[in-house]
Design goal:
This protein has 21 helices and four strands. By secondary structure, the chain is mostly helical. The strands form two sheets. The protein has a two-stranded antiparallel sheet. It has a two-stranded antiparallel ribbon with strand order 3-4. The longest helix is centred in the first third of the chain and has 33 residues, at about 1-35. The N and C termini lie far apart (about 60 Å). Residues about 1-5, about 40-45 and about 210-215 have low confidence and may be disordered.
């Protein structure tokens, strides 16, 4: 048995090295769109390209936390019915098993800022990878429903860590002129994780019988393989995180100046001492930060912290996760079959991926505020049309039934909504949260904002079925449209542009 295990370890190490070589080749091909004009003008193309490749490589490694963020929240979908039958779970207990990860995410996000400031961004990301591995293994082998809830809760904590650490780290290692593009990799990784999780669930159902006699761990149901599959990206994430440098802002904060100087040389491409001086000035006389730094005597939180909190709230209050969590039911009400509804859901997730690429290409050219403002307008209109379409829909078998023009209005509007969210509020919020706070409070303020985001996600996801049962989806979509309209004025009057600004200039 030990020989078999040793052979598997050797094979895994070889596979990780092969993945690393392919990853280096991929980043060299992807670097061109990320190459800032400033770099091309001030240094040789070869040198600038190597620097951009390095930044892109470590940014993608950090963004793999976002991939696991999306993967973990979506992989449970394919296992829900099997979990219910395996453990004979009631609707309440099943809901707890599914939603426990969301509560863990809120807790993890709240603690991530403190952890990142305590042990560093890099070590915190590695800890998140470890928690992902432990959660995937424990969830797959759970013998009781309560055990599954506990393991899912641990996975949620890891998701909360990843939702904070990735945008903070990427912002701190990226030059100002390309920070929007690298920061958008977080959202791209999230939506790719959702898509791959849904795809892997489907493939595992096809390839794995409920009782697989060839399993080296013994006979195991397909749903357990779904949850265990998360170990693969988690191990890759942990291995890649070990090879990235620590954030120069964190290193300066801890007095490790020479180490910071080396990282600045590789990433920012500027004379190191002026950068170090700016970071030290932005930190003031504080060697570290505390939760008290986020508060104000007059307004409870600092104004910039309130801006981050409201950004995180509005991203969820437009109801994006309702589309992803309940889309199958929506398409069934429009008249599509169960199979067709699932296919449309996958297509919707692909649309989200494609539009995130659009954000990556435009965010550093147009800026953060214009994308948010355009997104708010289109989202308001599309959700308003969805509310109108469902307003007069008759209830058939407990669900609204659309026909004629209203069904097509709902179908097109929902996809326009996803498209608009994908190039605006989806990626831009994470970019802004990663860069809008000053060096002293960034990790803690980002953690608090991400916690609010997860709690808002939980509120919207749990209240939608109530709206659906009491008054149909029209009222819910109307409220989400109202939130989107308010978000336009919030961005217009409260959100400041961060395009091209150094992190040390944030106040």
């Amino acid at each position: 048995m030990s020989g078999i295990f040793y052979g598997q370890c050797v094979s895994t190490c070889k596979e990780l090295r092969r993945i690393e070589r392919r990853f280096a080749l991929l980043t060299s091909r992807l670097a061109r769109p990320f190459m800032p004009k400033k770099s091309a003008e001030t240094m040789g193309n070869d040198q600038g390209n190597r620097r951009v490749q390095f930044i892109l490589r470590i940014a993608i490694a950090a963004a793999l936390g976002g991939f696991l963020f999306g993967y973990d929240t979506a992989v449970i979908n394919g296992a829900v019915s099997s979990i219910q039958s395996t453990f004979n779970a009631s609707a309440v207990n099943l809901g707890l098993a599914v939603s426990s990860a969301l509560l863990g995410s809120a807790a993890g996000a709240l603690g991530a800022g403190w952890l990142a400031d305590g042990i560093g961004r890099r070590r915190s990301m590695w800890l998140a990878a470890l928690l992902f591995v432990v959660s995937a293994l424990g969830s797959a082998l759970a013998s009781r429903l309560i055990d599954l809830v506990a393991w899912r809760l641990i996975g949620g904590v890891a998701v909360g860590f990843a939702s904070v650490l990735a945008p903070a780290y990427i912002a701190e290692i990226s030059p100002a002129e390309m920070r929007g593009r690298t920061g958008s990799l977080q959202q791209l990784a999230i939506v790719l994780g959702i898509f791959i999780a849904l795809l892997s669930d489907y493939l595992l159902v096809l390839a794995t019988p409920d009782q697989n006699p060839m399993s080296p761990l013994g006979a195991m149901a397909a749903w357990r393989w779904m949850l265990m599959s998360e170990m693969v990206p988690a191990v890759i994430y942990g291995a890649m995180v070990l090879q990235i440098p620590e954030s120069p802002r964190y290193l300066v904060q801890k007095g490790r100046i020479e180490q910071a100087r080396l990282v600045i040389c590789k990433t920012l491409g500027e004379p190191t001492q002026p950068v170090i001086d700016r970071i030290q000035f932005s930190l003031g006389n504080h060697e570290g930060s505390s939760i008290a730094d986020l508060f104000s005597r007059r307004t409870l939180f600092l104004p910039i912290v309130w801006t981050g909190i409201l950004l995180a709230m509005f991203q969820q209050f437009v109801g994006i996760n309702v589309i992803f969590y309940y889309s199958s039911s929506l398409w069934k009400s429009v008249g599509f079959s169960t199979t067709d509804s699932l296919i449309i859901t996958v297509i919707t997730s692909v649309t989200n991926v494609v539009t995130t690429f659009l954000a990556i290409l435009t965010i550093d050219r147009l800026g953060r505020r214009p994308l948010l403002l355009m997104g708010s307008v289109v989202i308001t209109i599309s959700l308003g049309l969805m509310s109108w379409a469902f307003a007069g829909a008759p209830i058939v078998n407990g669900a609204p039934a659309l026909s004629g023009a209203s069904s097509w209005v709902a179908l097109i509007s929902a996809n326009v909504f996803v498209f608009a969210f994908g190039f605006s509020w989806g990626p831009v919020m994470w970019v802004l949260l990663g860069e809008m706070f000053n060096n002293r409070i960034r990790a803690l303020a980002l953690g608090l904002s991400a916690t609010v985001n997860w709690l808002a996600n939980f509120v919207i996801s749990t209240t939608f079925p109530v709206f659906l049962e009491s008054s149909g989806p029209s009222l819910a979509y109307g409220l989400y449209a109202t939130a989107a309209a308010i978000s336009f004025f919030f961005v217009l009057f409260m959100v400041r542009e961060t395009k091209g600004r150094e992190l040390e200039d944030m106040v």
